[in-house]
Amino acid sequence: MHLLFSVEGQTWPIKLTGGAERTRNAMLRSLPLELQLHTPKIAGSHIYWHAPFVEDVEGSTHVLDAPAGAFIYWPVRQFLEITFAPLQAENAQITVLGALDAPIEGIAALAAVLKRDQGRRIISGRLTLNGGDRQEPEPAAPLPVDILSARARLWAKCPEDIARVTSSRAIMHPAGPVFAAEGEARVLHELLWWIRAELGRRDEGALRQTAALALNKAATRLRDFCHMDETPALLFRLETAMAEPLDFGTLLDEAIIVAGRVGAWLDLLIPWNDLNEAFRAALD
Asked: Which CATH number applies to 2-129?
């Protein structure tokens, strides 16, 4: 089975391999997937995009053992990725879903453009199934309609309150609010994953309270420090849902998807390569 990864007039086939059936099926149910590419900040030689599903690691391959051209799912980061060279200095277990079925040089060239342009423009793409029957989408989670519809809007388009956070030219703006917001969303996303890892091992009531506090803290900072409204409102709604008689695992996965998507939209605003070059120049 092959996927087609298409970006800016170019298309690369990806061959699905291995036995990660649970993760593969979750990904196939999300297709066709409109995506926005991110440039890496730590691990180096890969390109990635946000995944609209939550799955535990399957097959458990160390990320540094993924060969060039591997197509992987990185659970705690919640990204689908294509590598194009050995990665650097990361310690994580990932799920290998397949491999690029084309010369690696094309992805390396795309990565160079992405590294140069992130923060200046969004590089979008599409992931589709090459032929065959499309899997039926997963039924909507048994959650309140207002949460599901808000998440759908968040997924489909960058919220206005996130898009405009770069427009201010007040003292130390926009860098201060953008970095603060991106950091809050990223830490919230990671903490929710940590809570998920404790399901069945710790008291559910305590985990619900922890998730609610984490959501409240992030939402308050986005609202009060970063001048947002729509995005923190969804986080506050998820906070109140933690006290409602809803399936905790399902609700937690929904919160993870929301927090990850918020962080992903904010990440796309940041010209990471320009900032890194300026940081090096200042240090040198």
From this structure: 2.40.100.20
